[in-house]
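Hey, I'm writing a tutorial for new members on how sequence and structure tokens pair up, and I'd like a real worked example in the thread rather than a made-up one. If someone can provide the structure for the chain below, I'll link this post from the tutorial.
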Amino acid sequence: MIDVESLLAGVVAPDVDELPDLEVALMVVDVRRLVDATDALWIRLLAEFDRRELWRLDGARSAAAWLRRECRLVHPTTATALVVARAAEALPASGEAFRSGSISFEHMRAIAPAAEPERREVALRADPIFARAALWMNPRQMGNVVRTWLQLADG
């Protein structure tokens, strides 16, 4: 079991205004990596939570409704998180790149429309290409690639 309280204590403890300039600059990058890693863990947990339909245990109407109530999130956030969780499960190469920290939540969000059930089989063939492209593209560029791919795949 992960000791979340200890992790949180380490995150909130630094007095950043007392840190030297170089350390602040380095921590910006390092903490972003930490955010990406925790996003990936949260999405993995969310995918399993959704797969097991654990939201049903206390009478919630849906996973999104449960997340809105328990995590105090708004609808677009919950819907996006669930779409990304399902896509990370459906697309093994992109999902692994996300879980390993090679690509961000925003990259995975850009790739997620390709994983819709009606095109999932063809998306599996494109998945390794998406995962590699996301390594050197920013999320906006990745979104453009996926939109172009969707037009071709659906065309």
